[in-house]
């Protein structure tokens, strides 16, 4: 029986499905909040653990019943219709992803309910993926793999990545982590942010107004920006044309921040 003086938390995991997230069984194993993972978090933050009661659920199995008394919902998605009636005590919705655009527009959100994203936890993996992608492009791994498929055993060479320049568009948790990984390899790092303020571990930080002037120097461009009105189509055909021939492009942010049709034409 749940204690009335504790916060009721409902965790809605999703079984893998192309219509939702995660779309694959592999992704399901990565993103599921299991009992063991929850217990590990409780062990790490015992003061918080003592204040909550948690129901870990799948899809909509016990959603309607549990939401009648839930204060907090942890999920990727949810049925939004008539949420004030379905979840009269709900105060907080924690989305497990970095983006929430799949829930927009949020005209369904009841008054007094706050929606937050998973800001920060994806930084370590994002940093690993960003650096891996840069190294793959620098070492010409896509061309090597293509040669293997074509049984073309021609030599491909690349020099050291030291002193190569990477422009990182968006230096939040993920972008800043990629920057630190790149600095470990003695790369030159230029960050693009809304504020343009200096960030530890980044050689220089500019605003988007300066993006056109720094792109020609980039050996690699990394997009790590959220999707907003300002960032939609930010790396468009004109800006792609400003990059030097052979520059590597990595988009670890939202797809719509780059014009992919223009990218195909520019390639």
TrEMBL record:
Keywords associated with the record: NAD, Oxidoreductase
D-isomer specific 2-hydroxyacid dehydrogenase NAD-binding domain location: 132-267
Record InterPro entries: D-isomer_DH_NAD-bd, NAD(P)-bd_dom_sf
Molecular function terms, GO-annotated: NAD binding; oxidoreductase activity
One Pfam entry name: 2-Hacid_dh_C
Protein's UniProt name: D-isomer specific 2-hydroxyacid dehydrogenase NAD-binding domain-containing protein
Biological classification of the source: unclassified sequences, metagenomes, ecological metagenomes
